[in-house]
Write a structure and sequence with these properties.
Elements (H helix, E strand, L loop, with lengths): L4 H4 L16 H21 L6 H8 L3 H7 L3 H26 L5 H18 L21 H13 L6 H28 L5 H19 L1 H4 L5
Helix pairs in contact: 2-3, 2-5, 3-4, 5-6, 6-8, 6-9, 7-8, 8-9
Length: 223
């Protein structure tokens, strides 16, 4: 079974967008209701038009309740984005536990399929593009690509010395950005996702990784 903690792990020092962390079930439910309302608005009008007043009205809450958790609309968007990213990682981890990962192509495919599924199933998921991508500590590459690389190195027989590890992270970062851009475009074209764009996302990611990392390494079997 893959070490999915490498995907789920979170940095406790990561900046929080929520002004008050909920400590009771009722507070947690209220916060989720506010973010659910924000997600609906984002899907209907785009994140640029979101306001705290719109969130309050959609959630059936007072504006004071919104400000209890969020100082402004930007904080709402950050919190919604954090939730979407967390749910994406949880989806990837769950899918990996249910999938026989024979090569690390399978790892990449699981991530791309999870991204597609969240665009279909997770309200407001488009907000993941509303802010800067998080980068791993001490590394200029996107954090998720960093975690994917660590999982691949841990589960498969790949060279993990300094230069090779840095190359893997860089190439995965580029590949996942490419795939995500095409998947996002697929859902801009059609609400259910343009199948040609979704197919091209996988093909181009595979071709890119095969070209730059090599078919032999890409087809390595689990240790």
């Amino acid at each position: 079974m893959p070490n999915v903690d490498l995907i789920l792990g979170a940095d406790p020092s990561r900046r929080r967008s929520v002004r008050t962390e909920p400590t009771q079930r009722r507070s947690t439910q209220r916060l989720d209701a506010l973010l659910d309302a924000a997600a609906e608005i984002v899907d209907e009008t785009g994140f640029q038009r979101l306001t705290t007043q719109m969130v309050a009205e959609r959630a059936g809450a007072s504006i004071g309740t919104v400000y209890r958790y969020f100082p402004d609309r930007v904080a709402v968007l950050h919190a919604l984005r954090e939730r979407s990213i967390r749910r994406f990682r949880e989806r990837v981890a769950d899918d990996m536990e249910r999938t026989e990962l024979r090569t690390w192509w399978d790892v990449v495919d699981v991530a791309l399929d999870a991204c597609t599924a969240l665009y279909r199933d997770e309200p407001g998921f488009t907000v993941v593009h509303a802010g800067r991508r998080e980068t791993a500590d001490g590394d200029g590459e996107p954090e998720f690509a960093h975690r994917m690389a660590m999982l691949i190195e841990a589960e498969f027989d790949l060279d993990s010395d300094g230069d090779a590890a840095a190359e893997l992270r860089f190439r995965l970062g580029v590949a996942l950005e490419l795939g995500d851009a095409l998947i996002s475009r697929a859902f801009e074209r059609e609400p259910a996702g343009d199948e040609r764009y979704l197919a091209e996302a996988k093909r181009l990611v595979h071709d890119y990784l095969a070209e730059h990392l090599g078919e032999a390494r890409a087809a390595s079997s689990a240790a």
